[in-house]
Automatic annotation (TrEMBL):
Segments forming domain RNA polymerase sigma-70 region: 18-85
All copies of domain RNA polymerase sigma factor 70 region 4 type, residue ranges: 116-167
Gene3D superfamilies: 1.10.1740.10, Winged helix-like DNA-binding domain superfamily/Winged helix DNA-binding domain (1.10.10.10)
Origin: domain of life: Bacteria
Identification of the protein by name: RNA polymerase sigma factor
Source species of the chain: Microtetraspora malaysiensis
Keyword Transcription among UniProt keywords: yes
Keywords, sorted A to Z: Sigma factor, Transcription, Transcription regulation
InterPro entries (UniProt xref): RNA_pol_sigma-70-like, RNA_pol_sigma-70_dom, RNA_pol_sigma70_r2, RNA_pol_sigma70_r4_t2, RNA_pol_sigma_r2, RNA_pol_sigma_r3/r4-like, WH-like_DNA-bd_sf
Taxonomic path: Bacteria, Bacillati, Actinomycetota, Actinomycetes, Streptosporangiales
The family this protein is said to belong to: Belongs to the sigma-70 factor family. ECF subfamily.
Length: 192
């Protein structure tokens, strides 16, 4: 059964299923790019567009999620100017919700590593930040991340490779601590 079967009750049910399956990911996507108080508004605008253009939404849930991320990205860009736009596109590493899962004594090396990573991240261009964020935080493969950015998968893979290289270079440029040495010693073929 396709998510595009005809009839209002069917469409409403299908939209509800789409919303249920993708809303948390769309909200997280927005939260990493704007202040959390605005993320729900962005997510709501994305789903208004999805409702209006429901026939354009891909039928596979992962493809639909990437399509919604693209709508979210365009919505964010439409409302931002200058430095505000750059900050909205930047992912706030310090606010990464998965980093707060380890409660207890804080490891000094882990704290130093996070600070070093945040510094290296802040030195990346918005283009490199976005390429890394789509893969690392949003979990998109190259074709879907490319769809979000409106580029080819090959161009996305190249952009991602350059972003990883730039992140490593910025991390190496920082004062070396035991935690930083571990990050910069990452083998060439591994993921950043």
């Amino acid at each position: 059964m396709s998510i595009h079967d005809t009839g209002p009750p069917v469409r409403e049910r299908q939209f509800t299923d789409l919303f249920t399956a993708t809303y948390p990911a769309v909200l997280r996507f927005a939260e990493r790019r704007v202040h959390p108080s605005h993320a729900e508004d962005i997510a709501a605008e994305v789903f208004v567009v999805a409702w209006r253009r429901f026939e354009d939404v891909p039928t596979h849930v992962d493809d639909a999620r990437a399509w919604l991320f693209g709508v979210a990205r365009l919505t964010l860009m439409a409302g931002m100017r200058g430095e505000q736009r750059r900050q909205a596109l930047g992912v706030r590493i310090s606010e990464d919700p998965t980093a707060h899962g380890h409660v207890g004594a804080l490891d000094a090396d882990l704290v130093a590593w996070r600070v070093d990573l945040a510094r290296a991240w802040s030195r990346l261009s918005a283009v490199h930040q976005e390429a890394l964020a789509l893969t690392v935080w949003d979990g998109l493969d190259a074709p879907r991340a490319a769809q979000v950015l409106g580029i080819s998968p090959v161009a996305y893979r190249l952009r991602l490779s350059r972003a990883r290289k730039a992140l490593r270079a910025h991390a190496k440029a920082l004062p070396q601590t035991p935690a930083t040495r571990a990050v910069t010693a990452t083998p060439r073929g591994s993921s950043a």
